[in-house]
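=== RUN LOG ===
request id: a7f3
mode: sequence -> structure
chains: 1
length: 246
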Amino acid sequence: MHRPLPSTLIHWALAGALLLPACSDENEPEPAITREGRALASWDEVSPLLGFSIAEALPDELYTSDLIWNERASDVRFTPSGTQTRLRWCLAVPDPRSGLTRFEEVDVKCDPERVVTQTSACDDRLEATLILRLKSEDGALSENLPVTFTALSTRAASFSAPELALTSFQGTFVISNTARPGLTLHFGAFGGIDEREAGGALLAEWVPAGGAPASPGSDATMVYTVANWASTRTPGSPQNPPCSEF
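=== RESULT ===
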């Protein structure tokens, strides 16, 4: 049975999607949403724009969660499925020698005549490229995945990697697209951390081949939860070891 995605994870996944650059028509003089990034020297540099650092928004914690592999559907097959295991995971700062280091403050401006500005899409933010470390007891996941980390405040942050290669996993996890011809399977990892919970999900989405926009309500807009996990957090409690112990 396909277990529904928790509402907090839906919010994180949508927040990750909103981080994509705004598209504009070639006849449109200015985009509805503009983003101006400024590099920060390090993960603990305080942003002049937001008044806090990425280090303050990123708990140095190693989590242990129940990982739920949902049952595979007719349009996507994956192994394992329909089982539950334990998962150790955390978000880590990349090795400076990896070439992945990126710490930025992002000034976001929205045109109030074309965009609903009372949404997180129009909020200034801190962004970084981090490593999502995943290791499951069933051997399916043994991963170090680059993700975009986004913090709107020190109390809530999200991460996203919307374009994971289906063949790049180091564990035994395997996924394949069995949807009808003309649809392309996009596979990604999304999640977030707030004061009460840290969690994530592996999501599959079908889009028309070539990247053409799907019609609202069509099969091509379907998103399937391949797996999800969550850990309860107690603010200020040293209940979780640091990520360095992964």
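=== NOTES ===
Residues 1-10, 14-25, 213-217 have pLDDT under 50 and may be disordered.
The chain has one domain: 7-15+37-245.
=== END ===
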